[in-house]
């Protein structure tokens, strides 16, 4: 077999080291398999700024075209720009990116028409099976009439669509520092922000898939240090950091303080509910802050708790008709955006909220940041199931404590909660804890960690 696909086909996407784990010939087979599984007559493909992305993307296009599928290449784009193309053109799509992974990695995020997700249960397992069989026995027979490969630029249309979803016409002038991390934010931000009353201070906008300045993962505190310093130096109103494929955004306030993604979720939820007349369902995963469902209810909405992961969120968005969804990882999903995630639209909401009043961002978000949280703490363990069982045995039957296993194990009391989940890909347990005050959170966190780490 050309590759060990169990190592690169993940729960939601394809991801691995190029060329060690996958390469252009394999990408061509993925293109052919994607064409067969979706049954589409036409697809759209985009790619990020990684050195291997153009070649892999074109190989995938060749594989699909050989099966008779017409391919529209939109070239360099952010992942949410690819979702825009899939939604607006009503075509299945493939995005070549490894998000925030190091330079030697690349991957494919795939969706059906209208940006509907392709995961293990929605076509990815079938794609893997086909690629494995063809890698063993040779490529499939080409179609009698191959498809065409054409190019289309969607950046201006994508930017106009986003600006049409948030009213920024009457905001006060704002100074905003944006750290693109040498990722696709450097490509999309200048066009999306064009014409807005913003004094934009760009950082690391040069597209460079080797990430020379820092890893393009703003959830790691080490990667926003430069942004925090620059916001303070510039006397800016806020800072925004995007990850490598610019589908997630992270916000810092005027003092350089990080704003939790839960607070951003609550802020955007309140705005989306206001837009929908104080009615609507808002999805949040089970490790977002207690403040999220509280704010949703206070603004007339219905909060729905779900498992972690974009395929679960998007499925729940579709089935419940939700208007918005948010995750602790700074993924934000909008009904106005085909239920897909877009950090750029969340960033525009933050700019509109801040620019629509006179106070600083720290004051604005304080209303949405009500509890003490631990953040996600990873522990390497020998036996994930045994450690989870030990936690369950410790807390089960304790007065005033409830347990649920929607995703890992969540233990809840009147004044605190914590969740422990196993990683699907590494021997890790992930702990998130929250409480009404810092001291209680630290006590709960340390007690759980003592059990996890044995």
UniProtKB/TrEMBL annotation:
Keywords: Isomerase, Magnesium, Metal-binding, Phosphoprotein. It comes from the Bacteria. The keyword Metal-binding applies. The keyword Repeat does not apply. This is Phosphomannomutase/phosphoglucomutase. NCBIfam families: PRK09542.1. Belongs to the phosphohexose mutase family. GO terms for molecular function: intramolecular phosphotransferase activity; metal ion binding. It comes from Streptomyces montanus. SUPFAM superfamilies: Phosphoglucomutase, C-terminal domain (SSF55957), Phosphoglucomutase, first 3 domains (SSF53738). Signal peptide: none annotated. InterPro entries: A-D-PHexomutase_a/b/a-I, A-D-PHexomutase_a/b/a-I/II/III, A-D-PHexomutase_a/b/a-II, A-D-PHexomutase_a/b/a-III, A-D-PHexomutase_C, A-D-PHexomutase_C_sf, Alpha-D-phosphohexomutase_SF. Residues 376-448 form the Alpha-D-phosphohexomutase C-terminal domain. One of its GO terms (biological process) is carbohydrate metabolic process. Residues 7-133, 156-256, 263-371 form the Alpha-D-phosphohexomutase alpha/beta/alpha domain. Its cofactor is Mg(2+).
């Amino acid at each position: 077999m050309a590759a060990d696909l169990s190592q690169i086909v993940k729960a939601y996407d394809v991801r691995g080291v190029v060329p060690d784990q996958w390469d252009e010939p394999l990408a061509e087979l993925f293109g052919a398999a994607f064409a067969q599984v979706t049954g589409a007559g036409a697809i759209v493909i985009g790619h990020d700024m990684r050195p291997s992305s153009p070649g892999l993307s074109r190989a995938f296009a060749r594989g699909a075209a050989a099966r008779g599928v017409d391919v529209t290449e939109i070239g360099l784009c952010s992942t949410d720009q690819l979702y825009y193309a899939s939604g607006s053109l009503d075509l299945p799509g493939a995005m070549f990116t490894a998000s925030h992974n190091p330079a030697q990695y690349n991957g494919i995020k795939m969706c059906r028409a209208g940006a509907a997700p392709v995961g293990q249960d929605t076509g990815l397992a079938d794609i893997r099976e086909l690629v494995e069989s063809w890698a063993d026995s040779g490529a499939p027979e080409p179609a009698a009439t191959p498809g065409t490969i054409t190019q289309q630029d969607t950046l201006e249309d994508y930017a106009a669509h986003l600006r049409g979803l948030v009213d920024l016409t009457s905001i006060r002038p704002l100074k905003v520092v944006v750290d693109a991390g040498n990722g696709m934010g450097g490509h999309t931000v200048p066009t999306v922000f064009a014409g807005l009353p913003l004094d934009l201070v760009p950082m690391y906008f040069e597209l460079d898939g080797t990430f020379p300045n820092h890893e393009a993962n703003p959830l790691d505190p080490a990667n926003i240090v430069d942004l925090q310093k620059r916001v303070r130096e510039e006397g800016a109103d806020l800072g925004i950091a995007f990850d490598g494929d610019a589908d997630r955004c992270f916000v810092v306030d005027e003092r350089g303080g990080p704003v939790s993604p839960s607070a951003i979720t609550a802020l955007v939820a309140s705005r989306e509910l206001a837009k929908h007349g104080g009615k609507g369902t808002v999805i949040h995963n089970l490790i977002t802050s207690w403040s999220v469902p509280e704010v949703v209810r206070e603004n007339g909405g219905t909060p729905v708790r779900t498992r972690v992961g974009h395929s679960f969120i998007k499925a729940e968005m579709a089935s419940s008709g939700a208007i918005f969804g948010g995750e602790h990882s700074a993924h934000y999903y909008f009904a106005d955006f085909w239920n897909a995630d877009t950090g750029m639209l969340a960033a525009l909401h933050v700019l509109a909220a801040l620019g629509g009043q006179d106070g600083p961002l720290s004051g604005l978000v304080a209303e949405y940041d009500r509890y003490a949280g631990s953040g996600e703490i990873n522990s390497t363990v020998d036996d994930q199931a045994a450690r989870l069982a030990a936690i369950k045995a410790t807390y089960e039957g304790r007065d005033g404590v409830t347990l649920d296993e929607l995703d890992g194990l969540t233990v809840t009391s009147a004044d605190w909660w914590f969740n422990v989940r196993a990683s699907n890909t590494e021997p890790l347990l992930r702990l998130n804890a929250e409480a009404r005050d810092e001291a209680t959170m630290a006590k709960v966190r340390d007690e759980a960690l003592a059990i996890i780490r044995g």
